[in-house]
Amino acid sequence: MKKLLFLALIICACQGPEVAPPAPVYPIPSERQLAWHDLEYYGFVHFNMNTFSDMEWGMGDEDPADFNPTSLDTRQWAKVAKEAGMKGIIITAKHHDGFCLWPSAYTEHSVKNSPWKNGKGDLIQELRDACDEFGLKMGIYYSPWDRNHADYGTPEYINYMRNQLTELLTNYGEIFEVWFDGANGGTGYYGGANENRYVDKLTYYDWPNIYALVRELQPGAVLFSDGGPDVRWVGNEEGYAYETTWSNLMRDSVYAGMPEYPEKYASGQEDGTHWVPAEADVSIRPGWYYHEYEDHKVKTLPQLLDIYYNSIGRNAALLINFPVDRRGLIHEKDVEQIMKLSTKIKEDFAIDLAQIAKFSASNERGKGFEIKQVLNEDKNKYWAAEDGVIHNEIVIQFPQKQKINRFMVQEHIVLGQRVKAFTLEAKTEKGWELIHKGTTIGTKRILRFDDVDTDALRFTITDAKASPTLSRIGVYHAPALLIEPMLKRNKSGAMTLIVPGSNVDIYYTLDGSNPGINSLKYERPVMMDQAVQLKAISHDPATGQLSEILVQDLDMAKAKWSVIHTDPNAEKAIYEDPSTFWQSTADELTIDLGEVITLYGFTYLPPQNRFMSGVINRYVFQSSFDGRTWTDRALGEFSNIYNNPIEQTIRFDGVEARYIRLKALGTTDGLKGSFAELGVITRDN
Hints:
By secondary structure, the protein is of the alpha+beta class. It is built from ten helices and 35 strands. It has an eight-stranded parallel beta barrel, surrounded by four helices. Strands 13, 15, 16, 17, 18 and 20 form a six-stranded antiparallel beta sheet that branches. Strands 28, 30, 31, 32, 33 and 35 form a six-stranded antiparallel beta sheet that branches. Its EC number is 3.2.1.51.
């Protein structure tokens, strides 16, 4: 017995004494934020009055009788989210139009006055039950703006807002996130006033007391808005975080809806005062609410995969929106695509090659902080360097050559975000070759690169705020994904289809049928000067693999069109090149179509450059036979166009015209209206 005890003492002595963990580098996440980080991926559901009015932002004058889903099934929502790998669902309990999905005691503008379930329904409770059944967290979206309420803009409305939040946060169990939209103030119904009402977004809502109310009623919930206080908006609605994404934020300098937020604060700051990590929100379709004409515009698998890698893979959580349809179901096409993403993610990370490798580090803090800890799934285990040792090299040696194209690394964020710069190299016949040179890591960083055959990787931390920590490293080889063709079309109507960097064949159809290898084969540019729906597919003859189907509605070519303006640059508005735009001098664009045609609507694409200027948000569209006498055909707003600058589609009853004009009645920045592309709709469908 004494010999065994002596042996144990020798072993312990050889292992070395216990070492203290590194000191935190502030700011650091709270317990509620750490729980939120563990979720990583969850769903958004936009379903409300806008679903039935076919709008993105309702005006507030809608009739509750219009809300009448025929087959509402929140269990289907939860089942889809669960099978897709999501951890929760956030529901639009009240959007800007003010209609409430629960029978609120404080307004008549709610489901209690709708025909759905004879006014006895409570959609929030139904979703609560479904989330509980499928083991999902539930979150609440609540719009501070209310275009229905007569008191909006007055102090009385803040009491109304607090009362409704109390209902939502008291009656429906545990809430994991409360989501406040930054869009608020402007035109609205406002109880019949039908006017503009603007508020001071910084002070009007009394945010400190609103936040205190949420903390009191739901202490475990994180609060989302542009500036948090717990989770921040990523600054765009494309689902992309940034190459450099800090979880730190100058929180006291930010408020919901501030105009300069996307450019100045969205990517976080290295010296940020508070831990406010990014959430990347994106819709699986172009719009946030369901529109039947977007049924063929559901994001493709390559698009969704790019979103995954550029959000979760760049130190952000991912919030993917489902625009639930008028039946009250997630549309089958949306389900199909999100399940493809789930399957592909599992394929990409099926085998962690790091588990068969030998790790070594240029520096280790000591016992309990060895480099081997990065292979441990216990999130409380991590590698750490000694205090003051910033530059660290980690070598990953495989027993034999491996084909790799993914690298995943995570910091131990409990102690703060530290890494400022790193490199990844692979050992080849030429020596160490650089694969990637990066900046931040944070919760998770995933690198994608072309296949590399190597028997060793070298991950080097070149700069950090303090001695670095890492909780996980993973190495993978993801199966190749064949992408769908890309379409280019010039003003004359000549169509080009390409698949960058791939030796593949392209097949297409023009009759609405799905293409295959027996369809028309694309070999050279094809003239498409009339309205038609194109479907195209890529085919790899070496493997037999087929891509997703590209579906594109093409309308009449613009060969005969001309812009009526003395500035030759005005022609950029009809170039069919989304990378160019023209900023008008008189807030309007007038076009001679070259012939009389029948119009059923128009399309407007805002500028697509990073710093968009003159994005039209209120408009009037006019037509004319002679270019002198004009008739208004459509008047309205392009809702949410600043945050989601996609092509806007407006339809109306058929009308014959030779000339068209789009006039800007308002822009997002108050500058003269800009036009990347103006188009027309000549098919009545």
